[in-house]
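Appendix B, record 7
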Amino acid sequence: MKTNILKLIFLIGFISCTSACVPLTPEWDSRFGDSVKKIAALQTLNPDASAHPVTESMDGHASRDAIGRYRSSFKEPQNNANSFTIGVGR
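Structure tokens (predicted):
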């Protein structure tokens, strides 16, 4: 009787130790990274861009004016007034 209990304890211990080696998530592991690939594909504007080398662009004058406005926006720092102090006497 005592040996049967020891055998049972040994068997339970052996099963619990060997079951740790079995992967529990084979379905999840087989699809690992699919969501990232799907999101990257959805964010691609034109997947066939290499087949068509002509790109859409702006004319030179509009581009130069846009860059000029962008660069001039950094000449003076923006006035970032704290919204909590608006209306409070100075």
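Remarks on this record: Helices lie at 2-18, 26-30, 34-43, 60-72. The first helix runs from residue 2 to 18.
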